Task: structure prediction
Amino acid sequence: MLSPMHLRKAKLMFFYVRYPSSSILKVYFPDIKFNKNNTAQLVKWFSNFREFFYIQMEKYARQALAEGCKHPEELHVSTDSELFRVLTLHYNRNNQLEVPDSFRRCAQCSLREFFRSIISGKDAEPSWKKAIYKVIARLDESLPEYFKSPNWMEQLENV
Result:
Protein backbone atom coordinates (compact mmCIF):
# COMPACT_ATOMS: atom_id res chain seq x y z
CA MET A 1 0.00 0.00 0.00
CA LEU A 2 1.23 3.48 -0.81
CA SER A 3 1.66 5.93 2.05
CA PRO A 4 1.85 9.72 2.36
CA MET A 5 5.65 9.21 2.56
CA HIS A 6 5.59 7.53 -0.85
CA LEU A 7 3.70 10.53 -2.22
CA ARG A 8 6.26 12.91 -0.74
CA LYS A 9 9.09 10.89 -2.27
CA ALA A 10 7.39 10.85 -5.68
CA LYS A 11 6.93 14.64 -5.56
CA LEU A 12 10.62 15.13 -4.82
CA MET A 13 11.55 12.72 -7.60
CA PHE A 14 9.54 14.92 -10.00
CA PHE A 15 12.36 17.45 -9.86
CA TYR A 16 14.42 14.94 -11.85
CA VAL A 17 11.90 12.89 -13.83
CA ARG A 18 8.55 13.95 -15.20
CA TYR A 19 7.93 10.73 -17.14
CA PRO A 20 9.33 7.81 -15.11
CA SER A 21 8.81 4.34 -16.52
CA SER A 22 7.26 1.65 -14.34
CA SER A 23 10.67 -0.08 -14.23
CA ILE A 24 12.27 3.09 -12.81
CA LEU A 25 9.50 3.36 -10.25
CA LYS A 26 10.11 -0.21 -9.15
CA VAL A 27 13.82 0.46 -8.63
CA TYR A 28 13.23 3.65 -6.64
CA PHE A 29 10.41 2.31 -4.48
CA PRO A 30 12.04 -0.94 -3.26
CA ASP A 31 9.75 -1.17 -0.23
CA ILE A 32 6.63 -1.58 -2.38
CA LYS A 33 5.35 -4.96 -3.45
CA PHE A 34 4.17 -3.85 -6.86
CA ASN A 35 0.87 -4.93 -8.32
CA LYS A 36 -1.43 -3.54 -10.96
CA ASN A 37 -3.18 -1.16 -8.53
CA ASN A 38 -0.25 0.49 -6.82
CA THR A 39 1.71 0.74 -10.07
CA ALA A 40 -1.27 2.51 -11.60
CA GLN A 41 -1.49 4.78 -8.54
CA LEU A 42 2.17 5.80 -8.80
CA VAL A 43 1.83 6.46 -12.53
CA LYS A 44 -1.30 8.53 -11.79
CA TRP A 45 0.60 10.59 -9.22
CA PHE A 46 3.19 11.55 -11.81
CA SER A 47 0.43 12.32 -14.28
CA ASN A 48 -1.12 14.67 -11.70
CA PHE A 49 2.27 16.27 -11.01
CA ARG A 50 2.73 16.92 -14.74
CA GLU A 51 -0.78 18.33 -15.03
CA PHE A 52 -0.10 20.86 -12.26
CA PHE A 53 3.26 21.73 -13.83
CA TYR A 54 1.79 22.26 -17.31
CA ILE A 55 -1.16 24.28 -15.99
CA GLN A 56 1.33 26.64 -14.36
CA MET A 57 3.42 26.86 -17.53
CA GLU A 58 0.43 27.75 -19.67
CA LYS A 59 -0.83 30.27 -17.11
CA TYR A 60 2.52 32.07 -16.86
CA ALA A 61 3.10 31.95 -20.64
CA ARG A 62 -0.28 33.57 -21.27
CA GLN A 63 0.41 36.11 -18.54
CA ALA A 64 3.74 37.03 -20.16
CA LEU A 65 2.02 37.44 -23.52
CA ALA A 66 -0.66 39.66 -21.95
CA GLU A 67 2.10 41.75 -20.35
CA GLY A 68 3.64 42.40 -23.77
CA CYS A 69 6.38 39.79 -24.00
CA LYS A 70 7.21 39.17 -27.67
CA HIS A 71 10.04 36.62 -27.63
CA PRO A 72 10.44 33.42 -25.62
CA GLU A 73 14.08 34.28 -24.88
CA GLU A 74 12.78 37.15 -22.73
CA LEU A 75 11.28 34.61 -20.34
CA HIS A 76 13.51 33.57 -17.48
CA VAL A 77 12.80 31.34 -14.52
CA SER A 78 15.04 32.21 -11.61
CA THR A 79 15.06 30.65 -8.18
CA ASP A 80 13.35 33.77 -6.82
CA SER A 81 10.66 34.01 -9.51
CA GLU A 82 7.01 33.56 -8.62
CA LEU A 83 6.65 30.58 -10.96
CA PHE A 84 9.59 28.76 -9.37
CA ARG A 85 8.21 29.51 -5.90
CA VAL A 86 4.77 28.12 -6.83
CA LEU A 87 6.30 24.94 -8.26
CA THR A 88 8.71 24.27 -5.42
CA LEU A 89 6.02 24.92 -2.82
CA HIS A 90 3.83 22.32 -4.52
CA TYR A 91 6.47 19.59 -4.88
CA ASN A 92 8.73 20.39 -1.95
CA ARG A 93 6.41 21.94 0.64
CA ASN A 94 8.73 21.16 3.57
CA ASN A 95 11.90 22.24 1.75
CA GLN A 96 13.31 18.77 2.24
CA LEU A 97 15.41 18.90 -0.87
CA GLU A 98 17.55 21.57 -2.45
CA VAL A 99 15.88 21.86 -5.83
CA PRO A 100 18.33 20.94 -8.58
CA ASP A 101 19.15 23.70 -11.05
CA SER A 102 18.19 21.31 -13.84
CA PHE A 103 14.57 21.63 -12.67
CA ARG A 104 14.76 25.43 -12.95
CA ARG A 105 16.12 24.99 -16.49
CA CYS A 106 13.33 22.50 -17.27
CA ALA A 107 10.73 24.97 -16.02
CA GLN A 108 12.25 27.74 -18.13
CA CYS A 109 12.33 25.54 -21.22
CA SER A 110 8.71 24.49 -20.60
CA LEU A 111 7.58 28.06 -20.14
CA ARG A 112 9.26 29.09 -23.38
CA GLU A 113 7.77 26.13 -25.27
CA PHE A 114 4.28 27.04 -24.09
CA PHE A 115 4.90 30.67 -25.01
CA ARG A 116 6.09 29.73 -28.52
CA SER A 117 3.01 27.60 -29.11
CA ILE A 118 0.61 30.24 -27.84
CA ILE A 119 2.20 33.15 -29.72
CA SER A 120 2.20 31.14 -32.95
CA GLY A 121 -1.46 30.20 -32.52
CA LYS A 122 -0.86 26.47 -32.14
CA ASP A 123 -3.03 26.51 -29.02
CA ALA A 124 -6.05 26.65 -31.34
CA GLU A 125 -5.30 23.06 -32.42
CA PRO A 126 -6.80 20.19 -30.39
CA SER A 127 -3.55 18.39 -29.48
CA TRP A 128 -1.27 21.41 -29.34
CA LYS A 129 0.42 20.41 -26.06
CA LYS A 130 1.67 17.02 -27.28
CA ALA A 131 4.69 18.52 -29.06
CA ILE A 132 5.61 20.36 -25.84
CA TYR A 133 5.31 17.18 -23.79
CA LYS A 134 7.81 15.45 -26.08
CA VAL A 135 10.34 18.25 -25.57
CA ILE A 136 9.92 18.13 -21.80
CA ALA A 137 10.16 14.33 -21.65
CA ARG A 138 13.66 14.60 -23.13
CA LEU A 139 14.71 16.72 -20.15
CA ASP A 140 14.30 13.86 -17.66
CA GLU A 141 17.55 12.95 -15.98
CA SER A 142 18.96 10.30 -13.70
CA LEU A 143 17.63 10.17 -10.19
CA PRO A 144 20.08 10.48 -7.31
CA GLU A 145 21.03 7.14 -5.80
CA TYR A 146 19.74 8.06 -2.33
CA PHE A 147 16.15 7.75 -3.59
CA LYS A 148 16.75 3.99 -3.87
CA SER A 149 17.45 3.68 -0.17
CA PRO A 150 14.77 2.68 2.33
CA ASN A 151 16.27 5.46 4.51
CA TRP A 152 16.08 8.09 1.78
CA MET A 153 14.65 10.73 4.15
CA GLU A 154 17.64 10.53 6.47
CA GLN A 155 19.99 10.64 3.49
CA LEU A 156 18.43 13.94 2.35
CA GLU A 157 20.01 15.59 5.36
CA ASN A 158 23.46 14.61 4.06
CA VAL A 159 22.89 15.84 0.52
Q: What stands out?
A: DSSP finds seven helices and no strands in the chain. Helices lie at 4-13, 22-28, 36-66, 82-91, 101-119, 130-137, 152-156.
